[in-house]
Design brief:
The complex is a heterodimer of chains A (283) and B (304).
Chain A (H helix, E strand, L loop, with lengths): L1 H39 L21 H8 L4 H32 L5 H10 L9 H11 L5 H7 L4 H12 L4 H8 L4 H12 L1 H17 L2 H6 L8 H12 L4 H35 L2
Helix pairs in contact in A: 1-13, 2-13, 3-6, 3-7, 3-10, 7-10, 8-9, 10-13, 12-13
Chain B lengths: L1 H6 L4 H37 L2 E2 L7 E2 L3 H8 L1 H32 L5 H16 L2 H11 L6 H8 L14 H26 L3 H9 L4 H29 L3 H6 L11 H11 L3 H31 L1
Antiparallel strand pairs in B: 1-2
Helix pairs in contact in B: 2-13, 3-13, 4-8, 4-10, 5-8, 8-10, 9-10, 10-13, 12-13
């Protein structure tokens, strides 16, 4: 009895120690972000000063204003990023859920073969598709057009796979009842399946938005002109224009650039994590 | 139109026909887009890899010349080696640290604390590598760098994180692990919750030491997930691009240059389209081989 209590106490202390260590690590993980925000509020002359700070000492937004007033078309670049991310997100929500419904609920010849071919797409990196897409885009004038990057990602194997997983985990009873009542598949899809899938739609939407917001390789190849750039690529350029001595401005631009993704994640952490584990575990 | 024809549908054969028609209609957008932006480009890249492509002066077939060039050129071999080395280290540390963190977090704690931990470890995952690399380039600075400042405070010698050919790759791996390990942590946390509680409790009652519980019960149970993580991490790491472009531009010399950088440099810098296509085919084949090995291994393991 006595030893059992001792081991229990020992285990509890072990738990506390581990949690304390993790807490220190977690704060360490956040340091780059804290530094970034802290620098974005500093006067330009103090940006490089050591020791580094990890907490803003004042909330002076003049660096933010300076970025907007600079010769880099920051608002336009921001708009490009938003446009591409919204178009791709909406596009994938439509195309992926439609295809997933067909793969999960409908019987037709060649269905499983088609699904396997689609899944193979998960293994092709952007590097192996970009050259022909670039050459094709050059023919039709889509180089340096933000929408060109959006077009490439209007559907995704990952999205179809994720939505299919969610659909397969839903009971079929309601849909079958509706079918008996003479409802069409489009109506069943729209009225019964989709409303049940709200968490899945949020997960796919947030993951897709974030991923698209962050594309760099493709964006750098296809969108070279300053006015057509997206934020990740432009940040490098911005660093060149403003970088020497204006670290504060770069970090102000950076805070504005990561804001949408950070906000999305703070609000919907649950959905993101659900979606990611769903795709990882069931694979 | 569809709805109208469906309300009339009563007979099973009709239903089957309508079902098939709806099925094809629903997969149509995805199929067309997938064909246009994935399958066709992949096939074209493979074709290009056997050609010398020049739309102005004329293209011609060169057989395996592009591949031969890649596998005999010292520089491209060094770059291939860099990429494989980076992949090996990044995968090992990302997956193992992610697993350790998941094991550490797999215990009772207040909800707000778990929310904070998930936030802290997952935030780097969702922020673009291009953004965080710029922040890290100031952390890795020589004289004004944040990390070197703290090393000096502790009385340790400063490290030339990015400007020394022997440490630059390590620095990129460090940033990569900081950025990506949280992803694997999240996946492992979910996997650990799938390990049956009854088996673990029985092991605890028997007084099985913790490390043995891990290797005998937990690890075999989550091994499919471990395999998935290794492959997923490898596919990502083989494509490494922006973190290197921003931190070192592939330097010093070629010390950190990766295949992706070489593809862009050859394809869009020197317009050696055929050669760039060959390099991307090599990269894809490596990915396919790794995936095939994983499939074979996990089938063997999981059945045992």
């Amino acid at each position: 009895m006595n030893t059992a209590m001792q081991t229990q106490a020992a285990r509890r202390w072990l738990d506390y120690t581990i949690i304390a260590v993790i807490a220190v690590l977690a704060i360490g993980m956040l340091l780059p972000f804290l530094w970034l925000f802290s620098v974005s509020f500093k006067p330009v002359s103090e940006a490089y000063k050591l020791p580094p700070t990890f907490w803003p000492t004042s909330l002076d937004f003049s660096n933010y204003a300076a970025v907007l007033a600079s010769r880099v078309p920051f608002l336009q670049i921001y708009g490009n990023s938003l446009l591409i991310a919204v178009v791709v997100t909406v596009g994938q929500l439509v195309t992926c859920t439609l295809a997933a419904f067909a793969f999960a609920r409908l019987e037709f010849r060649g269905r499983d073969t088609l699904f396997v071919i689609l899944l193979i797409g998960l293994m092709f990196p952007a590097q192996v598709t970009i050259l022909p897409i670039y050459l094709g885009y050059a023919q039709v004038g889509l180089i340096n057009q933000p929408i060109g990057l959006g077009l490439m990602y209007l559907t995704s194997s990952f999205g179809v796979f994720l939505m299919r997983q969610f659909m397969l985990s839903q009971p079929k009873a309601l849909e079958e009842a509706a079918l008996m009542d003479g409802a069409g598949y489009l109506k069943i899809f729209w009225r019964i399946s989709l409303p049940q899938l709200r968490p899945a739609l949020s997960a796919l939407g947030i993951i897709t938005f974030t991923q698209t917001w962050n594309y760099y390789f493709q964006a750098r190849v296809l969108l070279g002109r300053e006015t057509s750039m997206t934020l990740p690529v432009a940040m490098d350029v911005l660093r060149g224009y403003l970088g020497s001595g204006s670290l504060s401005l770069v970090m102000a631009a950076m805070s504005m650039s990561i804001l949408p993704v950070v906000l999305l994640f703070l609000v919907a952490q649950k959905f993101v994590i659900e979606g990611i584990t769903m795709s990882g575990i069931k694979n | 139109m569809i709805t109208a024809s469906m309300t009339a549908a009563r007979r099973p054969s009709d239903l089957r026909r309508i079902q098939a028609r709806t099925g094809y209609l629903f997969v149509l957008p995805t199929s067309v887009l997938y064909l246009t932006f994935v399958l066709a480009p992949v096939i074209l890249t493979v074709i290009l890899s056997f050609a010398y492509y020049d739309p102005m002066l004329g293209s011609r077939w060169v057989g395996f010349e592009n591949f031969q060039r890649f596998f005999t050129d010292r520089r491209s071999l060094e770059i291939l080696w860099n990429t494989l080395r980076f992949t090996c280290f990044a995968v090992t540390f990302n997956v193992s640290i992610g697993l350790i963190l998941a094991l550490a977090l797999n215990r009772a704690m207040p909800g707000w604390l778990l929310y904070f931990f998930r936030l802290a470890f997952f935030l780097p995952v969702i922020i673009a590598a291009a953004f965080v690399s710029i922040v890290w380039s100031y952390f890795f600075g020589d004289d004004l760098g944040v990390i070197n400042y703290f090393l000096r405070v502790l009385g340790l010698p400063a490290v030339r994180w990015l400007t020394d050919a022997s440490t630059a790759m390590t620095s990129i791996v460090i940033m990569d692990v900081w950025k990506n390990t949280g992803f694997f942590m999240i996946i492992f946390i979910a996997a650990l919750q799938g390990v049956p509680k009854s088996i673990m409790e029985a092991a605890v009652m028997d007084g099985t030491p913790a490390w043995r519980q891990f290797f005998r019960i937990t690890l075999p149970y989550i091994s499919p997930v471990v395999f998935f993580c290794i492959v997923y991490a490898s596919i990502g790491a083989l494509q490494v691009y922006e973190s290197i472009v921003i931190l070192t531009q592939g330097g010093p010399g070629d010390a950190t240059r990766s295949l992706s950088i070489l593809i862009v440099e050859q394809g869009f810098g020197s317009f050696q389209i055929g050669y760039a296509a060959a390099i991307s085919v090599v990269m894809t084949v490596i990915i396919l081989v790794i995936t095939a090995i994983q499939q074979a291994l996990s089938r063997k393991w999981v059945q045992r």
